[in-house]
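FAQ: What does a ligand-bound record look like?

Like this one, built around zinc ion:
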Amino acid sequence: MDSKLTKIGQGSGPTVVYSASADKEKAKCSVCKEQVNDGVECEICEHWFHTPCADLSKTTMKALEEDKSLHWYCDGCRKGVVATWKRLKERQDELKEKMGSILKEVEGIEKTQT
Ligand SMILES: [Zn+2]
Ligand SMILES: [Zn+2]
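The answer part, i.e. the structure of the complex:
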């Protein structure tokens, strides 16, 4: 699995293009500022990137096209995503702990009732 790809449940996946189309005429690569004919759009900031500019291989592009649960974010956004995930994970662990103690309490109540 390419480390640049993120798998989060079922999503629509990023927009991947191989040839220029009318509505993509204004799409400029965020790295080299040239028009994007073959490239990928970041799902967060909606900026376009050439595959080589985004350091994406043909294999990765193909995977993105075929598996819609794969996501691709540009370098800048990926940093943000990772930070958000870390915070979410911490929250999840907290909640799990709370749930655990609540369950123990409930079990205790049930035992005293019987
Ligand atoms: Zn470029
Ligand atoms: Zn981005």
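Follow-up question: can I read anything off the structure? Yes, for example: Residues 29, 31-32, 34, 50, 53 surround zinc ion (ligand 1) (CB under 6 Å).
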